[in-house]
Structures are given as C-alpha cells and as structure tokens.
Amino acid sequence: AVLRLFGYLLTSLAAWYLGYFIAAHVPQNAVSIAALQEIGKKPMLRAPAPKRQKCDHWSPCPPGNFAYRILSGGGKERRAKICFEDEQRSVMCVPRTTSCVIDSTDHSGEMMDFIRNAPEGTLLLMATHDDGSTRLKNDAKKLVEELGSKEIKNIKFRSSWVFIAAKGFKLPDNIQKEKINHSDQMKNRYKGWPAEIQIEGCIPRNLI
Fold first, then answer.
1. 103/40 Cα distance (integer angstroms)
2. What b/e string do you get for 151-168 counting C-beta neighbours within 10 Å, with b at 16 or more?
3. Which residue spans within 111-159 are E strands per DSSP?
4. Which of 149, 158, 165, 198 has CB atoms 3.0–4.6 Å from 183's, for a disulfide?
5. Residue 175: Cβ within 10 Å count
6. How do strand 99-102 and strand 87-89 relate by DSSP bridges?
7. What whole-number distance in Å separates Cα of residue 178 and Cα of residue 113?
8. Among positive and negative, which fits the CA dihedral 83, 113, 111, 152?
9. How many angstroms from the chain centroid is the CA of residue 92?
10. 193: closest CA among 203, 201, 202, 185?
C-alpha cells in the first residue's frame, strides 16, 4: 500500500512538473483552442461551379461541332423550343431559318414550303406543340417521312414529337434523330397532355 501511494505521488509530481515546463516555455499564442479543434478534421474540397454549356448541355460539344437541343411542347403554356448554337427559338415555320414548330392550327402548306425551299446543306429541326396528328396534312407528313422520319405517321392526338433531319447530307449514325411520346390518360404529366420530350447532341460543322 505504501509503495502504491508513493508511486501515485511520484506520477502526480511528474505530471505537474511537465505541465509547468510546457506553460513556461511554450508561447501563449502558439496554440489556440481553434487550432486544437482543427486537428483531426478532414480538409474540405470545394468543387468549382459548373460552367454553362451551349443549349444547356451537361458537357460541351467537341471543337468543330454545333450544339442543338429540341424540346417538344407540354400542356397549354409550355411551348416547344428549339436551340441551335445557343440561339433559342419558339416560333412557327419561318422561311430562311432551320427551325419549325408544328402548331395546333393548320400550317401544313407553310411547313412544306419551308422544307422545299431550304437549300442543300440545311439542318431541319422540328417539334410538335398540341396536335400534329390531324392538323398536319398527309402530304406534309410524307415530306417529313422522306427526310428520314420513322414516327411522323405514328403521331396520335397530342403526341409529343421531336425530329432532326438533314437536307443534302447524312447525319452521323450515333446521334438520336427522333423521339415520340403518346398521350396516355394514366401517365400524362398534364391534364390531357403527355410530358415534354427532347433530343440533343452535337453535329460536326464539316458536314454542313
């Protein structure tokens, strides 16, 4: 018991002396509570804010490529939109442009003129808003089919449809050229309307 008591006193004395020695020889401003709290913490790495790409692509197109995105309409208020090289369009078929939105009124003749008057080496980007099934005449559908569409004659009431075609040259095989989404009362995002659909990609400039 005496030996244990002696050992306890010796240990206490050594601890007191060590604390006194540190306090006497270490500057007061050398160690702070904040610094001690930082010990053991993992460094925080902050990722830089992502840079916006053309047509809101997640990643940029390779050099020497055009960027595009085609978004169909959805519901009464969400118009179809076409983006090419960051230029946004939400319009009807307009001569001397490369975009065309098939609206709910009859623009079949206007659309056919648009396609026929487009010069060789033209990209044609198309999307529906509201009903392209009955409003778009068969002659116009046939003309779009000749451009390579496989779904234009499958459009049903208020189907969402997007399509990209080339006049006078061939598009790369690895890009998505067409997409369709039919109205389904059990799955529609909007009342009587299917969800919007879109396709996007990059087109080599040397093709045009």
1. 63
2. ebeebeebbbbbbbbbee
3. 122-128
4. 158
5. 13
6. unpaired
7. 22
8. negative
9. 24
10. 185
Distance in angstroms (rounded) separating the CA atoms of residues 180 and 128: 10
pTM of structure: 0.69
End-to-end CA distance of the chain: 98
Taking the CA of residue 208 as centre, how many other CA atoms within 13 Å lie in the half-sphere pointing to its CB?
15
For residue 31, what are the contacts with CB-CB under 8 A and spacing of at least 6? none
**Tens of pLDDT, residues 23-46:** 555 555 555 555 556 655 666 667
Q: State both tokens at 101.
A: 């939105």
Amino acid sitting at position 81: K
Domains of the chain, residue spans: 1-40, 54-207
Q: List, in sequence order, every beta strand (DSSP E) within the chain.
A: 65-71, 81-84, 87-89, 99-102, 122-128, 160-167, 178-181, 198-204
- Residue 1 exposure: Cα atoms within 13 Å on the Cβ side: 0
Q: Where would I find the H helices in 91-137?
A: 108-117
Residue 32 per-residue DSSP state: -
Token reading at 193: 């309307």
Model pLDDT for residues 92-105, shown as the tens digit of each residue: 444 434 555 555 45
